[in-house]
Amino acid sequence: MWAKYLNAAIPKTLKIGGIRAASSLVPGEPSEPKIVTTEIPGPKSRSLINDLDTVTQSGSVQLFADYEKSLGNYLMDVDGNAFLDVYMQISSIPIGYNHPEMLKVFKDENNLKALVNRPALGSFPGEHWPNKLRDVLLSISPGLPNVMTMMCGSCSNENAYKCLFIAYQKHQRGEKIDFSDIEKESCLINEAPGAPKLSLLSFFGAFHGRTMGTLSTTHSKAIHKIDIPAFDWPIAPFPKYRYPLEENARENQAEDARCLEQVEELIEQYRKKGVPVAGIVIEPIQSEGGDNEASPEFFQKLQRIAKKHGAGFLIDEVQTGAGATGKMWCHEHFNLDSPPDIVTFSKKMLTGGFYHALDQRPQQPYRVYNTWLGDPGKLLLLESFLKVLKQQNLLDQVNRSGAILKSGLLELEKDFPFLLNSVRGRGTFLAVNAASPSLRDQMVAGLKKKGIMSGGCGDHSIRLRPALTFQEHHANIFLDRLRQLLTEIK
Amino acid sequence: MWAKYLNAAIPKTLKIGGIRAASSLVPGEPSEPKIVTTEIPGPKSRSLINDLDTVTQSGSVQLFADYEKSLGNYLMDVDGNAFLDVYMQISSIPIGYNHPEMLKVFKDENNLKALVNRPALGSFPGEHWPNKLRDVLLSISPGLPNVMTMMCGSCSNENAYKCLFIAYQKHQRGEKIDFSDIEKESCLINEAPGAPKLSLLSFFGAFHGRTMGTLSTTHSKAIHKIDIPAFDWPIAPFPKYRYPLEENARENQAEDARCLEQVEELIEQYRKKGVPVAGIVIEPIQSEGGDNEASPEFFQKLQRIAKKHGAGFLIDEVQTGAGATGKMWCHEHFNLDSPPDIVTFSKKMLTGGFYHALDQRPQQPYRVYNTWLGDPGKLLLLESFLKVLKQQNLLDQVNRSGAILKSGLLELEKDFPFLLNSVRGRGTFLAVNAASPSLRDQMVAGLKKKGIMSGGCGDHSIRLRPALTFQEHHANIFLDRLRQLLTEIK
């Protein structure tokens, strides 16, 4: 393992804590994980969890972190443990903890003022806002000319869904721009025609958020949805592939065809039911649902089906976006006929929001609007992240680190076939299945004790979501510790 | 007018721009508004609006602000105009622009790190998080023991609604804690019993947000709702009072009774329909819908009706909370039998979130959860705001400034009875009706030209939402310019 890392030809080495380490993109990082407590969470974390539980539901807390000391790819906790973090706050820290460039942003007094005087951006934006939208957000747009900023993934999708409905109804109305009195009156009492019976088609295993519109398109885990009313909207099967892909091409093509057929049937069924499909929403890789991939051909055909039926096509890049797949947007791997109608983002993008085609832009103001419409402070952090991404060629870094990670995982899968299978993913956005849900949980916990913070997804997968500054030597540390763990479990 | 202001007995005076002004709570504020362009938006703003329109729907933009120069109660725009701002970014700036204490927050390196290393608070909170929730948020709780942080008003309400549904179903299940297989399976396909047919009762004129759950409880303006599918949930009338209240006590009591009767009828009707009401959601003052008030007795009785029918009682203080009514929470004016089950907040609170009773706390983790669960940086700003609020007795300030504003508005209403009516509100959270929607629009535009930034609500009201640092002398400037305008219009 280590030979591979030493071959990575990194120019300088640092000596930290007595161990020679490859030079890190974030200087001062620990050279390896360090675990000092016998249990994780350690005693200080456990005591803080008990404390937190008196003021809020805290059952999901894994440990208490020390964000003053965390650095780069290393998450420190309050008990003095140092984890190599391949999960990064559920895929939401783009270039590691306390990145020096990110810490600089608000030393600039004008940036600080933009943060503190948070405006109602839809009504009173600051002078620099149009340029920031253009130079920061649109500079990395996947071919779409307009953008709206939002707060988080759920609200980005909620508002993008509204654009899909609005655009669909615009086409139904044809030339007529204004609304009828009956539309205006009926919408206020939640009734058609003003609040029309329309639907969005989503996929089994999908996760698009937890607010009530997005939750109606989320089908990954029961605990997210139970007891919450939902819209009756169509749900299509998402391809379930056999791995390795190259050995199962024919079966997987048939699986694509089966799913696409169901999509068309559901569109037809809901049209007949009087609840037409205004849009199709899909993740390029189903993330919370288990890192389920679908082929470029699947996405190409799906987009054509959407077009054919006059439904908008929304790709949710909340988790996949911002570089971790080795391209800025995961769907850029798919070679689509044209850009999707809407692409939503959040997490590593730091600000939520969505890119959209002009056809998806509401003709009237105040339809997709809210008090804040995002947060200028987050866009300033994104600007800093993108500068680092460009200067350090982080997309190349992701592809290099991802190649090592993936080949290492494939090797492990071969060496431990009864424990691991179905290695998959792009860039460092990778996953592997454990043989069972309980083994998966055991592995995530076991990795933690070896100083690796990873995450589960679906019911038996482990997902990797490192920062874009995750390097070859980090990959090798991860693979090394995972091999140790598998050897112990075996 | 000015005599009143001089009597306000403020200790020191400052000389700014040649005019003697009372000492401002935010030193360095302009002494009065200054308008230098003939049109508003001015030429620089207009050019920026055209620019912005190429990248996003910008029809709602009023002007471009200069947040580097804005200070205290004064909003500066890019054309050099200085407005006395009684609207404050739709009621969301608590103590004015560039408040020196707020600008200090992120000079502290550890605060800066808390901002930049934004954690997944439900999984890896920082060491100080339990104390921050307790010392900052719960220190001003309206009698509720638990709190969850969220991002914005819509998502605070969305997640609070989920708590209402979850708590309602918990009571239906009785002792049984775990879910049945049929519940787990059906919820994933948006079907009962897992995704149950439940409803929330809301009111005509209400505004609770723009995501699809909250939008189903919003009934203020058609433009917010048109073309968006909605849940079939019951909508009750909100009292419409005659003013002045003291001369119309009997009619207004009858109005309360009529509305409450409808509430009970709707609960019964939706129970029979198989869509029981899991909760009642209401604003203490309907804000976007026109600053519609209801009496303390109305709220007391409404809470009792909710209890009687096993429905949760949620008060949405997103716009009314954080001191502007002269109490921290507007519903504290109502002398309720007990605290509401849930109180939601955002806007001037800087962080979104909700307080809740223990009964509303989900027993299982991950049910009300998302990646970020708020933002520690916003809580640090809130901490700073609350320190200033306490040190400067801003609730007293609000009551003093509000008294001057209200008596001044009542005087104007008497002097211009064909233009103004129905002055109402608490603290500085005040509104007045114009005789017609077009007159209202004319007045908001006219005030802008006189250097006053105000806002409309409902179809013919003007709402005042100044910062808590809005003082007696600001009130007098506002009243003075409004009188000038009314004289000109008359």
Automatic annotation (TrEMBL), chains A, B:
Domain of life (superkingdom): Eukaryota
E.C. no: 2.6.1.19, 2.6.1.22
Cited Gene3D superfamilies: Aspartate Aminotransferase, domain 1, Type I PLP-dependent aspartate aminotransferase-like (Major domain)
Enzyme class: transferase
One of the record's GO molecular function terms: (S)-3-amino-2-methylpropionate transaminase activity
GO aspect biological process, one term: gamma-aminobutyric acid catabolic process
Lineage: Eukaryota, Metazoa, Ecdysozoa, Arthropoda, Hexapoda
Protein name: (S)-3-amino-2-methylpropionate transaminase
Family the entry assigns: Belongs to the class-III pyridoxal-phosphate-dependent aminotransferase family.
Family matches, as InterPro entries: 4NH2But_aminotransferase_euk, Aminotrans_3, Aminotrans_3_PPA_site, PyrdxlP-dep_Trfase, PyrdxlP-dep_Trfase_major, PyrdxlP-dep_Trfase_small
Originating species: Phaedon cochleariae (Mustard beetle)
Required cofactor(s): pyridoxal 5'-phosphate
Pfam families: Aminotran_3
Alphabetized UniProt keyword annotations: Aminotransferase, Pyridoxal phosphate, Transferase
Keyword Hydrolase included in the entry's annotation: no
Cellular component, GO, one term: mitochondrion
